[in-house]
Amino acid sequence: MSETRPGIHPSIKLKGSHKSIEIKIIEKLSEEFFITYGGNDIRFGSNINYKYILVKPTERFREMFNLDREIIVIFSDYPDIQPRMLDAIDRVHQQFSDLRIEKICSIIFSSDPNCETKIKDLLKSDQESQIIISVNYHKYLLSKDKYFMVNKFRESFYTRDLYAFQSPLKKDLYFFGRTDIIHQIVNRHASNENSALFGLRKTGKTSVIFKVERTLEKTGQKSVWIDCQNTSFNKRRWNEALYYIIHLIREKYKREIDDFIDKIQANKLRFKSQDSYTEKDAAIIFEDEILRLHGIFGKKSILLIFDEIERITFGVGENSHWAKDFDFIFFWQTLRSIFQKLNNVFSYLIVGTNPKCIEQALINGKDNPLFNSVPSTYIERFALAQVKEMVGSLGRFMGLEFDDLVYSKLYEDFGGHPFLIRYVCSTINGIVQTQRPYYIDRVTYESAKTKFNQTSSGYFDMMLGILHDYYPDEYTMLENLATGNIQEFKDFAELSPEYTQHLLGYGIISNTNGTFDFKIDSIRDYLNGKNKYIKLNQTAEEMYHETEERRNKLEPKIRTLIKTIFKAKYGELEGRKLVLQLFATDIRGKIDSLNLSELLSADSNKYLMFLHLKEIIYKNWSDFQLIFDKDQRGFDFRMDIVNTIGRRDAHTRSISKNDMQEYRSAIGWLEQKIKDYES
User: Fold this and answer.
1) pLDDT tens for each residue of 104-129
2) What share of the chain is helix, strand, coil (3-state, %, to 5)?
3) Which among 630, 633, 620, 634 is positioned nearest to 668, based on CA atoms?
4) Shared-domain flag, residues 324 and 273
5) Are 509 and 560 in contact (CB under 8 A)?
């Protein structure tokens, strides 16, 4: 690529097309950018008019901010910044090829002295917004700083975390990958075929839906998104749900529909109310109205997108009429029958976590109308090349350059999962406080990964929560695989091969010649840490380690429990007496100077043992009975088991499997009671 030098293209004539102050700004800009286009007017009504130009970044801006294409520069000679200025940028974008104009950023010059603050406020509510460099007219012209614009770019680019996206992406600006799936769905719709897309939470399913809708809109095609978790939909019975679909289409395309009806003055085209959608007539009315909409839209097929399909699926739906009654059957019988009868009027896209809704042949003895009618497609994880594209592109805008090894580690550790990868990179961005550009090597990556893992349980709970809540057998399989209970995993796999296919489809696990393993190491580590005490086939050393570790974690919690209860009920002095009376006179003399906290501390009082803690609670049972379900004998029995099996020095023989089961039952009960009290 040839070097771009500062200046103004010879064909540009500024006088007559720009105000004098704008010409001065352009001339100063030409010392750092190459002005490629003199611009034109962007008008809003009869009173609002913005000027614009295009500028090409020179080498310094290319290297520092990864900018290659021309940048839109908007001028606003009005005293206040208005939201329509952002619309003006969009209007300019529409006039030029996407390959020519830089999508990631634009520049706004304004006579408003508070333009920087106001632009930031306007962009706060839109996480997918461009990076806008806003500059006051006079501040720029009066500045003697030759790095003024570089510093403005640095301030805008390097302080924005482009990895931290919580919500699904509704625009193309930060959307990466998924091209094959989107083309597949759009092409199947064009061929009058239905589709289904499945994947765990936070795998980008909703972002794909938005991208499919945007792709259809570019060719004038129609779609409607039906959110099955919305109570306005799932609270309705099957016949009312059909009405609601028509309602959503009418709301989305209200102006187009109303204009059509008014134009031909066809009152007979008015739509039916929900009351008309009785169980007997709903199918007839829906067919008539979807066909009518198809005509209004110029015979263009409508894509019905059902997101969060679990919410209306038999067995797991949130309302009994979907989960237990026959609403699922009646609803899909109707849609499928009308779809087969009409040609190229509508098709549907089913989106969810689990393909149970199309895999189970019978529902309460009745045929499932969706059974084997739609091919299951799982949302794919990113390939290494897509990880590099997403991480590298966004990183360069923020002044971060990644070592190739880091891309490979991101792919390996997080299995090509874009949501997790973004948030690890967001952690990297957060810990890099030095001057940018900054080179991200393996050391920086490992530091960020450690920090992410310490706070990532919420992300994994979010991803796997729907398996835990709706498909517990599949969740248990993951737990067994993570904790090394391979035989139990295989038992589930043999019981239902679909379980294994689902887990493989999610991209969580792999199957290499019958050997299963995790593709996403971070999920394995999370589940292993959360369930490390359920492993069945342990070595002797693993059993010793678990019993000691859990006992050593439980003991200080019991000490704290006693201290808290005694202080609250008896106060410091009386509480001390209750503890001191456990000891013989000679020992009391050695610890008599200790306060209540010190008496119950293992560091201060070497004489207070685990069994002493049991004795304190047992003798003062009325103070603790509610915590332990009033089961005094059960408490006493379990504390003895934990004390005996949980001490390595107490073992005269190896721990048996029966010992381990007994120990886990006893300490698990104690851990849960104290946890319940603490919370």
Assistant:
1) 889 999 988 888 888 888 877 676 67
2) 55, 15, 30
3) 634
4) yes
5) no
